[in-house]
Amino acid sequence: MAGARQHYIPAAVVGGFSETAAGPRRRRTGYARSIDRRTTRLTRAEDVAWAADLYTLKDPRELPPALVDNIWEGVEKKLPEAIEYLANESGDLRADIWMKVLVPYAAELFVRPLDFDETFSARFGEHAQLVDQISLVDNAKFARAINLQRMYYPVMDAYWVIVHNSSSLPFIINDCGMAILKDEQQIAHYFLPLDRTVGVDLHIGPSGNGMYPREHPERISGPKHRTVNSDEFVRTHNSLIYASAINEIYGPTKEVVEQAAALGDPLRQEVDASALPRNGQLLVHPGAWARDHEMVYFGALSMLEGNT
Questions:
Q1: pLDDT tens digit string along 131-185?
Q2: Domain spans of the chain?
Q3: pLDDT, tens digit, for every residue of 207-233?
């Protein structure tokens, strides 16, 4: 939401990692584990994963100062219903939920992180200081919006696996909303926990799965479903969520976040943070994006709108 307190992970998402399902998601309690301080605290979802004026334009000129922060608002309002729907679905997905909520949310995660401005400037290497001096004060904030447009197609065309957690352990989430994993070919893919019982394994690359609406625009047949009963699977993923975090992780109990910290701490040096395209570059599978692909998502969205 627009305002001084701006969340880089929506409070409505963090609230899904509470031990309770009662009450508004943003006011549910859970445990936050600080990586630097190595401390764990009980907190409400609305009180974590935010920074003051993170997206606010400092020199908006004729533009509204909340221009960038307002981008996320429409999707955030629909996320609780979409996540609940996904957790209970085992077949083809409703195209409206996938296209209008899940794809945008996943794409937004790549441009919302706390450290985006810093890493965006760092991409210029030895010229970073000069670029900062001659560029607009809000250059990196505008870059979030521009890169979001570029992320829609790779996320839409990715290979999606909906992971349903039926183990005795809950998923946790971190402050960038995803964990970085590597497949057998050492190509990065991303696990996006959505609440304690469901997440998405996102393999960005030319999947050829044709998941955007065509003959049957009301349904999406591309995503696969996987039910996990293994505590070890969840334990491993939680440790990688910790290893991929910037500063914090969030979960329903003190025990589960501290276990993730203990197992994930040795992995932090091994996780390739450059595999996460949050610095203004699309560090994804070759062929995942081309300039003319930017309009494919919007064309599919228009097709969906015309059939609903």
A1: 555 556 788 888 888 888 888 888 888 889 999 999 999 999 999 999 988 777 7
A2: 5-306
A3: 555 455 545 567 777 788 999 999 999
